[in-house]
Amino acid sequence: MDTDDARADAALFERLREAWQEADPVPADLADRMVAAVAVEDLSREYALLTLVEGSAPAAVRGEADTATLQFSDGETNVLLHVTATEDGSRRIDGWVDAAPLAIRLVQGDRDWGASADEHGRFAFDSIPPGVSLLRLVVSGSDGDVHDFRTPQFEV
Predict the structure, then answer these.
(1) Is-contact 91 133, C-beta < 8 A?
(2) DSSP label at 2?
(3) Please, what's the b/e burial string for 46-58 (b: 16 or more CB within 10 A of its CB; e: otherwise)?
(4) How many CA atoms lie less than 13 Å away from 39 in the CB half-sphere?
(5) Where does 1-156 have alpha helices with state H?
(6) How far are the Cα atoms of 21, 30, 34, 86, 152 from residue 27, in angstroms, in the given order?
(7) Which of 13, 61, 91, 134 has the least C-beta neighbours within 10 A?
């Protein structure tokens, strides 16, 4: 491309930009509104995570039916957990993951339990004592890379 063609292209793009600015100008507050919308979305997500982490009292996640459903995501991997209180006071945790898990561990302090997922990504933990827990997964991503997925702490 020679210099004259580049100048002609630049002039054409400038005229096109001016035409769009005249016909449909960008709202003056668009950038501020977008920043606010993104900030609110991040705040909602952060609040949900902080509520799970800070709400360490058992009543924070247990309702009248003594069940809780928790969802976690890191943008690549999504995990859904359903926590149910059993008659003996322990917990059953049913989970689903949308990635190929190579390892699944539920951790409470120094204790941990392992599980394996079926072909649909379903896994379960039985007879888990109440307490602050976190879930750790080693997953194979869509690009074939292996990465760790760890939830924030949550009360079971």
Answers:
(1) no
(2) -
(3) eeeeeebeeeeee
(4) 6
(5) 3-23, 30-54
(6) 10, 5, 11, 56, 39
(7) 13
Q: Is the pTM of this model over 0.70?
A: no
Percent of the chain with pLDDT over 90: 42
* 15: three-class secondary structure by DSSP: helix
Virtual torsion, Cα 7, 9, 12, 13, nearest 10 deg: -110
**Which three-class secondary structure state does DSSP give residue 19?**
helix
* Entry field: residues in the chain: 156
Contact 106, 123 (CB under 8 A): no
Which DSSP category does 143 fall into? T
Predicted confidence (pLDDT) at residue 40 exceeds the cutoff of 80 = no
* Terminal-residue alpha carbon distance, the chain: 65
Instruction: For residue range 137-149, list pLDDT tens digits in order.
Output: 998 876 778 889 8
- Supply the pLDDT for residue 153: 92
Q: Which residue has the tokens 């359903």?
A: 82
